[in-house]
Recover the amino acids of this structure.
């Protein structure tokens, strides 16, 4: 019996020795500062700086109720949300093997993206460097500022790499919002067609909250208030597809009359306008001929949009904005239906 107890004691002692000499060296020899990539409470963040060795910098700052990018533009809510969620979920998968250590550190130093996070007092909470992705280990090489030990970091349950949210291009961070007007805060909508002026109209809020329809087409028929409200709700959030950072193209468009000018004025008398231009057919255009095989000059699916006081040029989709480009007859219908005035003009 005593011999059995002796064997048992020896096994326990050996196990403790193995843990401290082998496993602990593998899993527990790193301080929390070496592995503290994640941040459990992102509500304390006031500023995030993303920078790379090319000189690109994305300065994200929290400005209630939104975030700004480089002190100039509103940042994309979805991109900021993805970044904050990633910061909460980052998890160290494994330390970088000793055989790869020098290579990984050298690679991070040569092509890294640096992430700096600050709290509401302006104090740096943490900073780390992001290197390449590791396909074999399904993670990304990362190194905490001030640490000597890189790690493979991933997001549990996510099939992809964390690097996709840490980008530095200002344009990619910018919000593509063109209109964001709650129906109850809209005082007036003006839709003006330069080519077909008889299709132009205005919706004007009255003291009792109803809207009058103003247009060149005279009728004694009353507008359908439900259709008016349905139309106004479309302005709640309308985004462009992508920016076009080619000043010469925007300047060229501004020398000619737009096909349509859409203006929304809120109840504080603040107005936003969108100038819509036809976009010529190119090799990427989905539909290049009419159904009777006549070549189309302009794209039926996409237009150019100039907005933000003529500072921005973007591609806008007919799928998103087409439901707004209607004529005054739309508001007399019993249900939302009607042709797109600009698309009909292209077809003709």
């Amino acid at each position: 019996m005593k011999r059995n107890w002796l064997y048992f004691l020896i096994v326990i002692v050996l196990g403790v020795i193995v843990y401290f000499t082998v496993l602990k060296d593998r899993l527990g020899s790193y301080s929390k500062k070496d592995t503290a990539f994640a941040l459990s409470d992102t509500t304390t963040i006031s500023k995030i700086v993303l920078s790379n060795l090319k000189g690109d910098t994305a300065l994200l700052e929290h400005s209630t109720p939104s975030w700004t990018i480089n002190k100039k533009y509103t940042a994309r809510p979805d991109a900021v949300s993805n970044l904050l969620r990633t910061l909460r979920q980052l998890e160290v998968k494994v330390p970088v093997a000793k055989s790869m250590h020098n290579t990984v550190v050298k690679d991070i130093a040569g092509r890294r993206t640096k992430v700096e996070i600050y709290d509401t007092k302006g104090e740096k909470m943490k900073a780390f460097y992001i290197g390449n992705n590791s396909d074999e280990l399904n993670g990304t090489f990362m190194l905490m500022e001030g640490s000597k030990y890189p790690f493979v970091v991933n997001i549990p349950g996510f099939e992809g790499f964390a690097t996709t949210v840490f980008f530095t291009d200002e344009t990619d961070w910018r919000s593509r919002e063109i209109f964001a007007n709650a129906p109850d805060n809209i005082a007036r909508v003006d839709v003006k067609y330069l080519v077909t002026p008889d299709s132009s109209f205005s919706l004007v809020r009255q003291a009792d909250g109803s809207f009058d329809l103003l247009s060149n087409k005279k009728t004694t028929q009353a507008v359908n208030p439900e259709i008016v409200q349905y139309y106004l709700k479309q302005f709640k959030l309308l985004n462009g597809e992508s920016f076009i950072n080619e000043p010469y193209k925007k300047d060229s468009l501004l020398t000619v009359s737009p096909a349509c000018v859409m203006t929304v004025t809120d109840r504080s008398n603040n107005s936003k306008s969108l100038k819509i231009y036809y976009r010529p057919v190119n090799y990427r255009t989905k539909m290049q001929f009419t159904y009777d095989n006549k070549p189309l000059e302009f794209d039926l699916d996409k237009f150019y949009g100039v907005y933000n006081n003529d500072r921005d040029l973007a591609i806008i989709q007919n799928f998103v904005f087409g439901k707004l480009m209607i004529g005054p007859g739309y508001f007399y219908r019993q249900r939302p239906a009607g042709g797109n005035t600009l698309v009909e003009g292209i077809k003709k």
